[in-house]
Amino acid sequence: MGGFHAITNVCASGTVSVAKIRLQSDPVEARQKESLDELFSENITAKIIRTAQKHLSHNNPPSQYPHIVPQTGQDVGKYVSKGIDFWTCGFFPGSIYSLLERVIKYPNRLRAKDVELQSLRRTLERLGKTWSDPIHGESRLTNTHDLGFIMMTHMKPRWELFHDEKALNTIITAANNLYTRYNSTVGAIRCWDELVWTNAPHIRGMDENFIVIIDSLCNLDLLFYAAAHSGSSRLSDAAKHHAHTLIRTHLREEPTMCRQGFSGMLYSTGHVVSFCPETGCIKEKRTAQGFDTNSTWSRGQAWAILGYAQTYAWTKDETFLHVACGLSEYFLLRLEMAPSCVEIHCADGTTSGRYVPMWDFDAPIDKEGLLLRDTSAGTAAANGMLILFQALTGLGRYDMGKRYLKAALAIIEETISCSLASERAKLVTTENKDISVVDELEGSAFEAVLKNATVSNNAQGYAQIRDHGLVYADYYLIEFGTQLLRLGLA
Question: Which pLDDT tens digit goes with each residue over 335-390?
Fold first, then answer.
């Protein structure tokens, strides 16, 4: 289990500190350093800029936003888009603004060669605003719980980097509209109005059903942020109630499972719960994207890790901290328990891949031997663990903090090692000081940064979207690198 040994070796050396990540020269640690350096590579910036420029053709101002990049078939290597009203629209402008923050605040960490810094900054500013501006109008939505994903990824940096009052107002408007979906009897925010996109019996009727999904935990950040800036405690109170409710209804205690070095309860997660809106009682539990109702869909587990880590950061309620740690431990344990076939043998004699999660921790390996992974689950979970590192370090629990930092680094390192698209791009500054993008190998292009993401593989779903590049897998990879910079860790 090469990935596990990588963590053990780094942990034993004591070389990871709040001030700096220091990696020694043995093959595993050298590979980790090389992979982590990729977080700041010209390739990532070039791919985001190329997609931003290319997909404005016949789409300016944007109404269609990058979503998935097929690895096979007719559209191989090219982004397939979704409409602006789809829940993923905010991730692509979010990637642009995460890179723009690096250019503004950490210019010495850029790896781009032969690119004029001011030109790069101007290009990212222009493209970021172009892709973000149309989303202001989505703040009016009251038919979705996903306003956090839609808004916070890019409107928050617009406010924090540029003091953009309109962006802050959009965040507050979106939060108030999200609040309209809160039901105090259930103690939660309605997520879906109906569940109709699988072959299982549909759940219809908002008067009889109140559907809540585990993903919703990541939208609470919007409510907390808006409450802090507007003084509206009803927003933060609703977010806290929602988070407490899902501990009871969506999290499953795993008392028979333990992971060395952690003495608390481990938690797995379910995906969908339908409540009676009048009584708050649970009517039924399901999955929509995982393997089955009782399995642990890896991205659902990741959403819970990230959501509860964010919720603790806002509330300082240690209930949420304990839960986030227990969710992380279960996620890591299931990675370590995976069969040996998940490992890829590297040229240096080590292995990699154990820390790139399968799409569902309980799904059988494909009959044809396909290891169906979900890189978006890994990158989202790693971001949550980075928040836990910061939180625990702030509490003086340094050993536990480093535990999650090292785990997060292992996930990102192996994700890059195993799933970074080999088709690379680079930046070029023209004579007019404009930024353009070319393939490193002419004719070899793949628009996403990562491969091997799975949106859904539920056998009862009307469509299985698997083994693709995915806009939010890339966003969480980029945001992880930017967060390392914010923490002084890279």
Answer: 999 999 999 988 888 899 999 999 999 999 876 567 899 999 999 999 999 999 99
Tokens of 40: 């700041």
Q: Which of 326, 322, 329, 352 is nearest to 340 (CA)?
A: 352
* Rounded Cα gap, residues 181 and 175, in angstroms: 10
- The answer on pLDDT for 114 being more than 80 is no
Check: CB of residue 100 under 8 Å from CB of residue 74. no
- C-alpha closest to that of 224 among 321, 147, 123, 135: 147
pTM (two decimals): 0.93
Nearest alpha-carbon partner for 335 in 309, 353, 308: 353
86-102 burial, b at 16+ Cβ within 10 Å, e below that, comes to bbbbbbbbbbbbbbbbb
Residues paired with residue 195 on neighbouring β-strands, in sequence order: 203
For residue 194, give the 3-state DSSP assignment: coil
Q: What is the pLDDT of residue 26?
A: 54
pLDDT digits (tens, 9 = 90+) for 477-489: 999 999 999 999 9
Q: What is the 3-state secondary structure (H, E, C) of 406-423?
A: HHHHHHHHHHHHHHECCC
Cα–Cα distances in angstroms (integers) from residue 447 to residues 37, 51, 94, 119, 473, in the given order: 20, 7, 16, 22, 13
Q: Residue 30 — very low, low, confident or very high, per pLDDT cuts 50/70/90?
A: low
Helix, strand, or coil here: 262? strand
**CA 385 → CA 303, 402, 412, distances in Å?**
11, 10, 11
Asked if 278 and 340 touch (Cβ cutoff 8 Å), the reply is no
* Per-chain mean pLDDT for the chain: 92
| Residues β-bridged to residue 166 | none
E strands along 152-238, which residues? 182-183, 188-189, 210-213
C-alpha span between 147 and 153 (Å, rounded): 10
**What is the Cα gyration radius of the chain?**
21
Helix (H) or strand (E) holding 427: strand 425-429
